Amino acid sequence: MGELPLDINIQEPRWDQSTFLGRARHFFTVTDPRNLLLSGAQLEASRNIVQNYRAGVVTPGITEDQLWRAKYVYDSAFHPDTGEKVVLIGRMSAQGSKDEGHCRRGRSECLCSLRKTPTVVFWQWVNQSFNAIVNYSNRSGDTPITVRQLGTAYVSATTGAVATALGLKSLTKHLPPLVGRFVPFAAVAAANCINIPLMRQRELQVGIPVADEAGQRLGYSVTAAKQGIFQVVISRICMAIPAMAIPPLIMDTLEKKDFLKRRPWLGAPLQVGLVGFCLVFATPLCCALFPQKSSIHISNLEPELRAQIHEQNPSVEVVYYNKGL
């Protein structure tokens, strides 16, 4: 078998990212929970394979499928802009197990702890702390951020999200049980609208890198950052819909049946199974709603950046950026 050619484009995912199906196939590999079981040595080996190939060095004996497998692992564990290894709980492949726990706790809070505000505060703080880690880990760009800036972002994001959850909790005291089941979803949606922009507020202050089609950086844009963060918020809200909307409807029906009334102990494991099943598909499919490498026409950029790009390369009409996840 001959050496693998160097004409395989692993700068981009394997499948066409201009289509939803292509993006979905990509994210089903990136968000695969089995990636969490890989050792540090395996992650480093995958990074070396990818970086060496990009530099024109082919790992001896490697096949094309093995090259792409290394690319999937690399994309699942390393930040696309900084190249740094993402902390384990901040990776999108950890989203399923993290969100499943939060969904179960959210329903428990809603049904059993409406009067136990400290309990709600504690679990919402835990939830939003996890979300803050995920949001920071999957940010766009490589602009340095100080510890103080990161601390300010974390405090503002978690405080705002917890306050929102408590506000929604106070509105549920006189609602029917079925409506109450959807309060956790409303809290998640509202908290995402607060947590994500605040954890990524540095991008809204200094902008994110934009580049031409070849990857040549052209400057930093706040407009692109706003567009990217908006898309991420929409994706995250949609990600929560199946796991937090479908199981409550099913459980509300099943709990009225004699089968579950005689076996109430089946309620919890059944709900966990439903949530887990939903999240297996929701995470990659909702990540695929928008391209990770998004684009924006230069006419929509800031006037100063637009003039700078025209001066550097008058033929550029569209620029690209990593929107984050």
UniProtKB/TrEMBL annotation:
Coiled coil: none annotated. Keywords: Amino-acid transport, Membrane, Mitochondrion, One-carbon metabolism, Transmembrane, Transmembrane helix, Transport. It catalyses: L-serine(in) = L-serine(out). It comes from the Eukaryota. One of its GO terms (biological process) is one-carbon metabolic process. Its main location: mitochondrion. GO terms for cellular component: mitochondrial membrane. Mitochondrial serine transporter that mediates transport of serine into mitochondria, an important step of the one-carbon metabolism pathway. Mitochondrial serine is converted to glycine and formate, which then exits to the cytosol where it is used to generate the charged folates that serve as one-carbon donors. This is Sidoreflexin.
